Amino acid sequence: MKEYQIFGLETSKKDAQVILIPVPWEVTASYGSGTAEGPELIFDASNQVDLFDIEVKNAYECGYYMLPVNKKLKSENIKLRKLALKINHKLQNLKKLTSDDLAAQKKINAACEKMNTYVYDSAKAALSENKVIGVLGGDHSTPLGAIKAISEKYKGDFGVLHIDAHLDLRDS
Questions:
Q1: Phi/psi of residue 65, each to 5°?
Q2: How is the chain classified by DSSP, letter by letter?
Q3: How do beta strands 10-11 and 64-66 pair?
């Protein structure tokens, strides 16, 4: 069954060549918030994108499909973001973390692993159907599962196009 999808195109998951994985996650973002809303906002605004391209005629015909936003992941993000901000604030102000903070940090790390597993599983499934994948959203940790799935399939012979508001290519 076809449905209206990203860019307002009528595309089924089966027929799409490109699968977008939305990841509403910003738990570990160190500055500001809002990136978790990115996938849904991009989807909502996408039908306003002009798909005309003088160099790549009818590129939209390859079919784009965005997976549904994982509501459980989004809900977990909201809860854990508050804990992470508290810890981040203490660390930035050189304050010692309490045992409660360390327990929260452990919980956050475990949830990040689950998020990465979700992205990995979604990417691996799409790749097994010979789809091109893209990840939309969240903080810098969100593409890790997809990169892992791609590296397994292509044995290190691949590239990553990363679009971000800033490069983050400095030594930490």
A1: -135, 130
A2: --EE-GGG-EE-TTT-SEEEEE----TT-SS---GGGHHHHHHHHHTTS----SSSTTGGGG-EEEPPP-HHHHHHHHHHHHHHHHHHHHHHTTPPPPHHHHHHHHHHHHHHHHHHHHHHHHHHHHHHTT-EEEEE-SSTTTTHHHHHHHHHHHTT--------SS---S--
A3: unpaired
By CB atoms closer than 10 A (0-12, 13-18, 19+), residue 136 is buried
Give the residue from 18, 9, 22 showing the smallest Cα distance to 49: 9
One-letter amino acid identity for 54? I
- Tokens 């009528």 label which residue? 10
What pTM was computed for the model? 0.89
pLDDT digits (tens, 9 = 90+) for 19-32: 999 999 999 887 77
